Amino acid sequence: MKRFYYLFFLLCTIVFAGYAQQRPAYWKEIQDFKHKDSISMPAKNGILFVGSSSFTKWTDLETVFKEYGAINRGFGGSTLAQANGYIADLVYPYQPRQIVIYSGENDIATDGVSALETLNRFATFFTNIRNRFQDVPVMYISIKNSPSRVKYAEAMTHTNKLIREYLSNYKNTRFVDVNTKMLKDKQLRPELFLEDMLHMKPAGYDIWIKEIKPFLIPPSKDK
C-alpha cells in the first residue's frame, strides 16, 4: 500500500510539473496583476502603460503620473507578441482613456525577428486594441538603443521608422521619440544606464518623463 501511495504521489508530481511547464512565459506576472486587481481595481478611464521591462522597472511610474490616473502594466522582458497574447487580461479590463506602449525591443533582441515582423506584431496589437476601444488614443514610445544591444541598433532604428509611419495613418495616435533624446552628439550615453547597460537609471527616466508628459491626456480633457 505504501508503494501505491508513493507511486501515486510521484505521478501527481510529474503531472503537475508538466502542467506548470506548459504555462506560457510571464503567466505568473499576469496572475499577479489579476490578483492585485481583485483586491483593488484601478479606476476606469485612467492611462494604461503597457510594455516590457523599461516599464516594469519604472517602479514610481504610477506616482510620477498620479494626476493622470496612471496604471503600470509592464511585465518582464516581454514582447509585442506576448502583450497581444495577454491582451484580454492586460488591456481590456481597464477601459483606459489612453494607452501608452513601450514594447518591441525584445521582439528583436530576444525573439530575433526582423523590423518588419516587429511592425506586424505591433499592428496586430494596435488593431486588437482599437477593435475593443474604438479611437482610444495610443502613444508609442520609441525603442531605445542601449550599450548592451548595439548590434541591434540598426534593426531597432528601422522598427521605430516603420511604426512611426504606420501610426501616421491613424488618428488619435502619437509616436514619441525618446531614443534620439537619450543621445549626445548622436552617441549613446552609458551614464544613463544601470550596470547591465540595458535598463535605465533615474536620469534616463527623467528624459522619458520630459518627452512623454506633454502628450498625456489629463482627466479634465476627457470629459
Tell me what the structure shows:
- The protein has 223 residues and is α/β, with parallel strands linked by helices.
- The chain has a single domain, classed as 3-Layer(aba) Sandwich (Rossmann fold), CATH 3.40.50.
- It contains 10 helices and 7 strands.
- A 5-stranded parallel beta sheet has the order 2-1-3-4-5. A two-stranded antiparallel sheet has the order 6-7.
- β6 and β7 (187-188) form a beta hairpin.
- α8 runs parallel beside α9.
- The longest helix is centred in the N-terminal third of the chain and has 21 residues, at 2-22.
- Mean pLDDT is 92; it is low at 13-20.
- It comes from Pedobacter nutrimenti.
- Residues 54-207 form the SGNH hydrolase-type esterase domain.
- Pfam families: Lipase_GDSL_2.
Which features does this protein show?
single chain, 223 residues, alpha/beta, Rossmann fold, 10 helices, 7 strands, 45% helix, 12% strand, hydrolase activity, acting on ester bonds, Lysophospholipase L1-like esterase, SGNH_hydro, SGNH_hydro_sf
Describe the structure concisely for a colleague.
This protein is an alpha/beta fold and 223 residues long. It has ten helices and seven strands.
Spell out the CATH superfamily: SGNH hydrolase
Q: Please count the helical segments.
A: 10
List low-pLDDT spans.
13-20
Largest β sheet strand count, sense and barrel closure: 5 strands, parallel
Give the helix/strand class. Answer: alpha/beta
Radius of gyration: 20 Å
The string of secondary-structure elements, in order, is HHEHHEHHEHHEHEEEH
How many individual β-strands? Answer: 7
Q: Any idea of the CATH topology? A: Rossmann fold
Q: Termini separation (Å)?
A: 69 Å
Helix content estimate: 40-55%
When the domains are counted, the total is 1
Please report the first level of CATH classification, the CATH class.
Alpha Beta
Q: What portion of the residues fall into strands of 2 or more residues?
A: 5-15%
- The assigned CATH architecture is 3-Layer(aba) Sandwich
Shape: globular
Arithmetic mean of pLDDT? 92
The largest beta-sheet arranges its strands as 2-1-3-4-5
